[in-house]
């Protein structure tokens, strides 16, 4: 599979990584950050798997499909948590998580 | 420089990575996790640089010394934050951070 | 699941990460490194998933089992490649890969 | 410092990460990959620091500047190696490395 083949999915993963990290940073600064524990935790999980998946696809890893499969699961879990919270950063993060989950699901095939 | 040369410093980094991640998980579960924001943030920073430094040293990276230099800085910052908190996981994490900072400082030379 | 629960599997992953990176470095220096392409590639894949799995387990990731499942697959692939080559670093790496695959398989349950 | 502040530098790092990984994959497949050892090694070093720097900036790491400083060094080393080789993937990688080094140098301030 070629570098180009992965292009769209890599871009979704890198966008999702950035939004998750932004949400993580913003959650840590919220006045009631104590209520945001699950969101903080899942933001890190999701940013890390997205970074890992993007690296794997861009080096044409033989394991890219399986990595995208687990990335789908983690993006969905993070999106489901984030969408419960009214903060703009959580809502925007949820949207990016679901878009990334969709791209990874196709890639995992 | 050889794999063996790095052995002690790699071990300190990997121990510190584990303690930082353990402290991160425990802080997220504390009743007053809202007060633990800086600790959570620095635990992640420190776990990530320690993992990165251990990978770099074990693959004999030409940049291992500079990476250990920044690892020293981050370990000290994390240790200084953790030692402010009375939780056992914070105190143990602080100890590991300072030990790792010391090993990385020697390596950075 | 607790930090301690993961202890043995984390240790196997971190040992395997180091041996894979050592093998990667040594393969790049071999006179006939052109024949070692698959070994170099899989050493990086395996070191990276092992580092990722160890981080995930030590922060008590909700996705630790699935991550260990894919780690099993990658460790086996790397071990199977490395055991084809007579270099000491390849043989030692293969042994560590198979031991890590076994620990991750149990964890993935 | 805000998420937006880092935007351009994050984008350069993520582009550079992809080109380095693409060059790494292509070098491993070259007929004379034995001559490409330093390029393969530096491509991995550079992809990994770029991924790490992008993660750090997007989570508003207190250490983003120091991380960008070391990223500058590694991007330049990788660019200098890649530009020695005539392959298209090496030449394109070199260009991206130098552009990323420039963005990181500004960020490191």
From TrEMBL, chains A, B, C, D:
Transmembrane regions: none
Pfam families recorded: Csp
Domain of life: Bacteria
InterPro entries: Csp_YhjQ (IPR005560), YHJQ-like (IPR044543)
Protein name: Four-helix bundle copper-binding protein
């Amino acid at each position: 599979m070629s570098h180009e083949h992965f292009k769209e999915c890599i871009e979704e993963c890198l966008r999702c990584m950035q939004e998750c990290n932004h949400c993580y940073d913003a959650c840590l600064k919220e006045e009631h950050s104590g209520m945001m524990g699950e969101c903080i935790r899942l933001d890190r999980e999701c940013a890390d798997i997205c970074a890992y998946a993007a690296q794997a696809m861009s080096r044409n890893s033989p394991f890219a499909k399986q990595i995208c499969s687990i990335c789908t699961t983690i993006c969905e879990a993070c999106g489901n948590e984030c969408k419960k919270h009214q903060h703009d950063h959580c809502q925007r993060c949820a949207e990016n998580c679901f878009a990334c989950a969709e791209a990874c699901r196709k890639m995992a095939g």
